[in-house]
Amino acid sequence: MKPRFQFTIHATEGKARTGVIQMRRGEIRTPAFMPVGTAATVKAMKPQDVRATGADIILGNTYHLMLRPGAERMARLGGLHKFMNWDRPILTDSGGYQVMSLSELRKITEEGVTFASHIDGSRHMLSPERSMEIQRLLGSDIVMCFDECPKIDQPRDVIARSMEMSMRWAKRSREAFDAGGDHAECSALFGIQQGALDESLRKTSADALAEIGFDGYAIGGLAVGEGQEAMFSTLDFAPGQLPADRPRYLMGVGKPDDLVGAVERGVDMFDCVLPTRSGRNGQAFTWSGPLNMRNARHAEDTGPVDPRCSCPTCATYTRAYLHHLIKAGEMLGAMLLTEHNISFYQQLMQGMRDAIAEQRFTAFAADFRRDYFRKE
Amino acid sequence: MKPRFQFTIHATEGKARTGVIQMRRGEIRTPAFMPVGTAATVKAMKPQDVRATGADIILGNTYHLMLRPGAERMARLGGLHKFMNWDRPILTDSGGYQVMSLSELRKITEEGVTFASHIDGSRHMLSPERSMEIQRLLGSDIVMCFDECPKIDQPRDVIARSMEMSMRWAKRSREAFDAGGDHAECSALFGIQQGALDESLRKTSADALAEIGFDGYAIGGLAVGEGQEAMFSTLDFAPGQLPADRPRYLMGVGKPDDLVGAVERGVDMFDCVLPTRSGRNGQAFTWSGPLNMRNARHAEDTGPVDPRCSCPTCATYTRAYLHHLIKAGEMLGAMLLTEHNISFYQQLMQGMRDAIAEQRFTAFAADFRRDYFRKE
């Protein structure tokens, strides 16, 4: 039988690692990028096309799914995998981040958060226990602890108190997850480190999580406006505070250069809306940097979006056509650019995995940055 | 070498006909439904998926394409087929209808129409000669004469004068098309019958077109608000006024029951935005009638949109999932329902072609109407 959750590191170079997570629904090659499927769809893509880009796992958002279609309804319909026709692993977040950024009339107590839906104003509650229940009802493969993600620019004592509550919530999440019967026996639970940019708070958080014990450890509370330099400074110490034999997941990151810099610092997993959202907005990521497809210089350019890219969009369509579609507001423009961007991200991850395996990741990262930041 | 344009009728039943049009870029099985690809894309579908539904030919809109990306630009980019990755036949309309319905500051003279773009207000001109030139620059396979499509509820003398001008424009279109060199030798030109609901005006128009001589003949000026009963009354005589050995194309039609009724009356070709537009709006066509996927009764329905449909959407997804996607405003909902609707239309056409070939079209049409109008 396939293991519930087994992480094997195949090679390292400096702090960078490559390996594989084995789970019941399939393998996740690391470093891994998880496309975001917020509302039971990776926006503007069919699931078979998401898989064809090389994605081993996608992310679903607990906050959105609990509001629509609803967790109990999803369970009656057979769970998220069947609902959206994705049979490989799905990681669900806890709802903690979105409830802070999207909902209204929030009230946070030690028990949890009550809030009003941004869709219809209806009242809801999230707590460690309810978040575990919802993620179980969805059928999540990798469940995230319920935590609070505080604004990054607050005083240290505010960040500390928030982190400490998140650690108490992590323990309650662990206990509620473990009580989950069959689901707990075939899925995994990740803890989330908090502490903003503060090394000692991050250390306290990491130790508290390790004491509880999780299948993997996320670095939370970053990519919230602190900038790449501050994020990298934090990543210079945060991953190393977490257990070395477990996957480390940097939540909500990021730009292609963020991913390379974070892998260099020991991160194994990522998720971000950037490739999908940018695709809908006419931005294409390439090995030569991002391109704004609305730019008039593409109007008669018969070359592909990225000559080094192997995706169906680049094999088939010209920059001129994509420029036209985006300018005309055509859905196909969003579809083709999303597919390109997700594929580009997967090619970047594959490039990093191969480079680490072959002990040439330092050169890979240098080449990447040289090409990505060179002006065309 | 493949013929430039050859129409072969394989079987008839009553006035209904089935056959094939052979052209350089491929065969068009008739009765044929042409998905509308207004701005060089069948909205929300990849071209290979359009083809997989069974579509032999698509339609492009001259008005939209002349404004964006522009006819001369399209020619520099290698033509519409290459631009949008569709290598089978494309029919382009003349721009005459859209310039009346979409543009601003129109001025119509015997020479043609001057107007302002609905996109940016820029000034443009369309005439029989310019329309032929644009359709040649696009690389159209079936070119439509430039005509005026008058409002249907005007006095007979207004309709008559408009029709007479359209017939003079048809002659100018023929002459301009024939002067088109290589393009004229590998593409076809269709005339457009006008005359609104009036049998004698329709006859005058049909005779004028036959005198000029075209590869096929369209019935124009219908599906503009007159209602199905008036449309069918007109189709009781209009197709029979046109040359029997040429394809008859009913422009801008229609609902599934419109198509069946028009095929019964001798029509061979159709185009309509309904399946694509409805798909984006959450409406699904089925053998049991149209469904509004927003309706709450679908929220936990694990059946397919249409159990008789063979499309990928019906093979893969539940009504519950499509309901969720449409309610959430997800692009994938529009993508999957558009694919279903175009596929349903193609299955309906295939059903009619098979039934006529097997001399059971009367029963097919009766069965269709019984199921389509029966309340679920």
Task: Kindly summarize this structure in a few lines.
Chain A has 17 helices and 16 strands.
What does this structure look like?
The structure is a homodimer of 376-residue chains. Chain A is of the alpha/beta class. The first copy, chain A, folds into 2 domains: 31-271, Queuine tRNA-ribosyltransferase-like (TIM Barrel, Alpha-Beta Barrel), CATH 3.20.20.105; 279-373, no CATH class. Helix content of chain A is 43%, strand content 18%. The first copy, chain A, has helices spanning 47-52, 62-67, 71-76, 80-84, 96-101, 128-138, 156-178, 182-186, 199-212, 228-235, 238-241, 256-264, 274-280, 312-316, 319-327, 331-357, 361-372, and strands at residues 5-13, 16-23, 26-30, 32-35, 58-60, 90-92, 104-108, 113-116, 123-126, 142-144, 188-193, 216-219, 248-250, 269-272, 283-284, 291-292. Chain A has an 8-stranded parallel beta sheet with strand order 4-14-13-12-11-10-6-5. Chain A has a 3-stranded antiparallel beta sheet with strand order 1-2-3. The A-B interface holds A 39-41, 43-46, 68-69, 73, 76-78, 83-85, 280, 299-300, 302, 316-318, 320-321, 324-325, 327-328, 330-332, 334-336 and B 39-41, 43-46, 68-69, 73, 76-78, 83-85, 280, 299-300, 302, 316-318, 320-321, 324-325, 327-328, 330-332, 334-336.
